[in-house]
Design brief:
- With 98 residues, the protein is of the alpha+beta class.
- It has a domain of 67 residues.
- The chain contains two helices and two strands; from the N terminus they run ααββ.
- Strands 1-2 form a two-stranded antiparallel ribbon.
Amino acid sequence: MSPLRLSTILMSATLATAMLSSAAVSAQNVTPANRNTVVLQGELQMLENRLRRQQYQQQQQQFRAQDRVVVPQRPDVPQMAPTCQLRRSGSRFISVCR
């Protein structure tokens, strides 16, 4: 397992635990006793946002890699050949294409 994947899993587990414990604290007012808890909540929210950004970026990188692998072929479109005729005009020949 890659180190990035392992850190993502550990961070997800930590955030899930913190979110469960923070639900009870979020309804309380900030007092000196629970100030640290509220600060930790803010830090956990920042970590969760960072994790979501990293996951989004990884997903976009995977999509870009898939797009690079599948190179679309140019379609073979039949083209009409011009119909050119040489016509004599006096002592010269003129090419008339339609």
